[in-house]
């Protein structure tokens, strides 16, 4: 989508910019503070009058994850049977007199949902959609030199409103910003790659910026823009002056040349910064910046998706916004961990199903090298749930869509704008009209990325072409579970660019095959990358005596989440994740897993979105010796061999014809199974071993390495496993484990991957599942932290963080 023509002129390049000073000048006084602490919270329909009805909390905060679940909740299984309702937040704010003649703004990154904000009893703002940011101007209501009170009402009582777990509360960060009346809003600055020369020696960046005149007089404003390279050195600059009347803006646009640009790519996600400063005379009034990447993206039916001129298949994951045991609370550490888990599993792309993600998650994708399809809405005006976004659509869709695009347009990770998912209007004239309006809204802000949507069928094959009129308003078309239509649609419409915006877990090979064989199919996004809260029972498997039924039929309680991910709720990769990595040739070559035996020996009944329950374990103490057990070996080698206790039980081809897998049936006997990868000469190139565990006798604790992301780490994730005397993880044994902390920290969440557990995510002690759990610790101050885990019969284990 990026223009490929050479620019006619460049404003400033290279060494001219090196003389630029970025030090702030006299008069510059912008302040910014994240308001994370000192909030008080109350859950109930009315604002509490008594002080003892408030509880001190810190942000981000999701009250739903803290409360017990039950099957009578009006949010139903779609929201995981979690409690919702109405919540109140209040906080004191001391406004010093130095804020005289300054603007004061509260920026809310995300509140779910229907937020109302008061200052000193005056209602200042209301915002309905739970996933888009909004700002509240406090300037005229602040009492300087005194303590002011912020009050926020969050109303998530209209249920059901979400098809997945939404969470409830101020679940994303809140920032207080103090700045000059003549100022720069971060939404008003942009940087995008216009052109990269064929020899790679020059990158041309289209930059734009605005200064807002909030003063009472017309002012001549000078804007100075600088591009800063990854080493912190200025490599290009530009300045321009103009007049702005009160309440108006001064805008400039320019093309800046960057010599020898370091491109942003999947394996080298290099970031630059655009710094913009505003001046009135010699007085600097403001300074704002945004990070960006120098990269090109192109889409075509003939060449597929090109990143920096190189063909890339999208190996994608759909992900919801929750952070597992933390609920919807969006910590920067959690966002980066989620992105890293996906990247480490072999994914290179993410679809933010089905709402705008947090800025922290997009920062993580920028810094780690993940591509993003940035999605705005699940539905449009026609409702999927009684109280969903359809009740807000007419009044809010345009402002919400604009908020997403303005906020996210500088993220190099974002390569597509998705305007909807399986919308009910997809076969109607109204849907065509809405899609056209949304596309034009997006293009009025950003023309460098294509507009897309995830669309499923109408129920009958002969009706599918009726969607062509809707698809005409999409630059790239997402097919949800329509793999069988790719070839026939290409024959009808050879210029259509297609990808699987959703696919089943068990379609991993077919999805890869379609993308590998056809240039017009640019990739696949599996449903889903990670298990999530809500949509209770999706991905569930049933024992042989129970017929499988879909998650939308019946009540699946105590199920409260979706077990349809490559990765479980705690961030642990399931065997299907390793299979996908091998199929897409993302680094792994060999893996083996065991089909969990049933009591009768018959096969499992697998529901839609599920896959058979393979487990990386050879510990089955209740299984009689000699019982037949199925072992699957995933391999990128020509052949795979399987051994049990050093005895060969078979050798089978594992090429593309076999979909890179081989299935063996062997008699159970405790010990060791070993899969071997065999090359074309018959040599053993790689071994994969699963060892039986003895009864667990200890608790093993392993702290994940914190991810550096430019800010102080506040969360630590500790993996808990039950292990035998040799340290081997015993997946067949579970125990209730209690946890305690010594040091400046609190336990933010304890969870397992058991989505049918009735335990609360704040419960302590908490039972493991498949011998495993996850503890999330939030640091509250400086100093060392020690976590102790203890269980009857297993003793206690300590780990210092």
TrEMBL record:
GO molecular-function terms, A-Z: hydrolase activity, hydrolyzing O-glycosyl compounds
Look up the domain of life of the source.
Bacteria
Annotated ranges, domain Glycoside hydrolase family 2 immunoglobulin-like beta-sandwich? 193-295
Q: Which Pfam families match?
A: DUF4982, Glyco_hydro2_C5, Glyco_hydro_2, Glyco_hydro_2_C, Glyco_hydro_2_N
Q: Which InterPro entries match?
A: Beta-gal/glucu_dom_sf (IPR036156), DUF4982 (IPR032311), Galactose-bd-like_sf (IPR008979), GH (IPR017853), GH2_Domain-Containing (IPR051913), Glyco_hydro2_dom5 (IPR040605), Glyco_hydro_2 (IPR006101), Glyco_hydro_2_AS (IPR023232)
Give the record's GO biological process terms. carbohydrate metabolic process
Which keywords accompany this UniProt record? Glycosidase, Hydrolase, Signal
Identify the residues that the record assigns to the Glycoside hydrolase family domain, covering every copy.
703-800
Indicate yes or no for the key word Hydrolase: yes
Domain DUF4982 span(s) in chain numbering: 626-685
Q: Where is the Glycosyl hydrolases family 2 sugar binding domain?
A: 38-176
Instruction: Please state every residue range assigned to the domain named Glycoside hydrolase family 2 catalytic.
Output: 302-462
* Leader sequence segment: 1-29
Q: Which family does it belong to?
A: Belongs to the glycosyl hydrolase 2 family.
PANTHER family documented for this protein: BETA-GALACTOSIDASE, BETA-MANNOSIDASE
Under which name does UniProt file this protein?
Glycoside hydrolase family 2 protein
Q: Which organism is it from?
A: Pelagicoccus albus
Top-down, what is the taxonomic lineage of the species of origin? Bacteria, Pseudomonadati, Verrucomicrobiota, Opitutia, Puniceicoccales
């Amino acid at each position: 989508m990026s223009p490929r023509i050479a620019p006619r002129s460049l404003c400033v390049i290279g060494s001219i910019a090196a003389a630029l000073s970025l030090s702030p000048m006299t008069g510059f006084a912008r302040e910014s503070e994240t308001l994370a602490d000192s909030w008080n919270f109350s859950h109930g329909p009315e604002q509490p009058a008594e002080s003892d009805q408030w509880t001190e909390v810190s942000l981000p905060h999701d009250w739903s994850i803290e409360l017990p679940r039950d099957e009578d909740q009006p949010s139903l299984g779609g929201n995981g049977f979690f409690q919702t309702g109405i919540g109140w937040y209040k906080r004191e704010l001391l406004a010093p007199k130095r804020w005289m003649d300054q603007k004061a703004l509260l920026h809310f990154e995300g509140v779910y949902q229907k937020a109302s904000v008061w200052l000193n009893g005056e209602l200042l703002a209301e915002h309905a959609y739970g996933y888009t940011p909004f700002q509240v101007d406090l300037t005229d209501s602040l009492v300087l030199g005194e303590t002011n009170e912020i009050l926020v009402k969050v109303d998530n009582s209209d249920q059901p409103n979400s098809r997945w777990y939404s969470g409830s509360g101020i679940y994303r960060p809140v920032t207080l910003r103090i700045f000059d009346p003549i100022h720069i809003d971060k939404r008003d600055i942009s940087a995008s790659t216009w052109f990269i020369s064929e020899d790679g020696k020059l990158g041309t960046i289209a930059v734009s910026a605005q200064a807002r005149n909030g003063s009472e007089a017309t002012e001549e404003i000078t804007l100075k823009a600088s591009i800063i390279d990854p080493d912190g050195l200025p490599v290009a600059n530009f300045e321009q002056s103009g007049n702005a009347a009160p309440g108006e803006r001064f805008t400039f646009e320019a093309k800046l040349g960057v010599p020898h640009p370091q491109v942003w790519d999947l394996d080298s996600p290099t970031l630059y910064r655009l710094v913009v400063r505003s001046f009135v005379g010699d007085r600097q009034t403001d300074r704002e910046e945004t990070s960006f990447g120098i990269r090109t993206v192109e889409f075509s039916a003939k060449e597929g998706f090109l990143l920096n001129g190189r063909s890339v298949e999208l190996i994608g994951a759909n992900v919801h916004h929750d952070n597992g045991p933390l609920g919807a609370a969006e910590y920067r550490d959690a966002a980066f961990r989620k992105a890293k888990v996906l990247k480490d599993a072999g994914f290179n792309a993410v679809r933010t199903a089905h709402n705008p993600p947090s800025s922290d998650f997009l920062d993580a994708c920028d810094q780690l090298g993940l591509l993003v399809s940035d999605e705005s809405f699940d539905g449009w005006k026609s409702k999927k749930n009684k109280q969903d976004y359809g009740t807000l659509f007419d009044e809010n869709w345009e402002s919400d869509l604009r908020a997403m695009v303005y906020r996210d347009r500088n993220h190099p990770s974002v390569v597509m704008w998705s305007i909807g998912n399986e919308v009910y209007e997809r076969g109607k004239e109204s849907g065509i009209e809405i899609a056209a309006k949304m596309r034009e809204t997006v293009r009025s802000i950003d023309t460098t990325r294509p507009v897309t949507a995830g669309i499923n069928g109408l129920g009958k094959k002969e009706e599918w072409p009726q969607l062509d009129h809707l698809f005409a308003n999409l630059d790239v078309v997402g097919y949800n579970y329509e793999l069988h239509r790719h070839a026939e649609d290409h024959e009808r419409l050879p210029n259509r660019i297609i990808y699987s915006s959703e696919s089943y877990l068990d379609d991993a090979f077919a999805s890869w095959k379609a993308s590998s064989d056809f240039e017009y199919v640019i990739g696949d996004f599996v449903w889903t990358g990670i298990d999530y809260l809500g949509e209770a029972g999706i991905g569930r498997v049933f024992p042989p005596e129970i017929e499988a039924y879909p998650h939308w039929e019946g009540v699946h309680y105590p199920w409260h989440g979706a077990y349809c991910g490559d990765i479980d709720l705690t961030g642990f990769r399931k065997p299907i994740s390793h299979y996908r990595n091998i199929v897409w040739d993302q680094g792994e070559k060999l893996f083996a897993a065991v089909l969990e035996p049933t009591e009768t020996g018959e096969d499992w009944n697998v529901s839609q979105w599920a896959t058979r329950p393979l487990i990386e374990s050879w510990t089955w103490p209740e299984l009689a010796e000699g019982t037949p057990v199925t072992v699957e070996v995933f391999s990128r080698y020509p052949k795979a061999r399987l051994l049990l206790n050093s005895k060969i039980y078979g050798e089978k081809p594992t090429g593309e014809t076999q979909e890179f897998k081989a299935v063996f049936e062997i008699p159970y006997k405790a010990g060791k199974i070993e899969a071997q990868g065999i090359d074309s000469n018959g040599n053993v190139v790689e071994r994969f071993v699963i060892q039986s565990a003895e009864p667990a006798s200890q608790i093993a604790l392993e702290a994940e390495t914190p991810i550096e992301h430019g800010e102080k780490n506040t969360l630590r994730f500790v993996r808990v496993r039950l292990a035998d005397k040799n340290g081997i993880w015993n997946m067949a044994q579970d125990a209730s484990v209690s946890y305690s902390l010594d040091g400046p920290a609190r336990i933010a969440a304890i969870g397992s991957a058991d989505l049918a557990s009735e335990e609360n995510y704040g419960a302590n002690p908490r039972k493991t599942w498949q011998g495993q759990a996850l503890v999330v610790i939030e640091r509250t101050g400086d100093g060392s932290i020690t976590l102790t885990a203890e269980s009857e019969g297993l003793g206690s284990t300590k780990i210092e963080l």
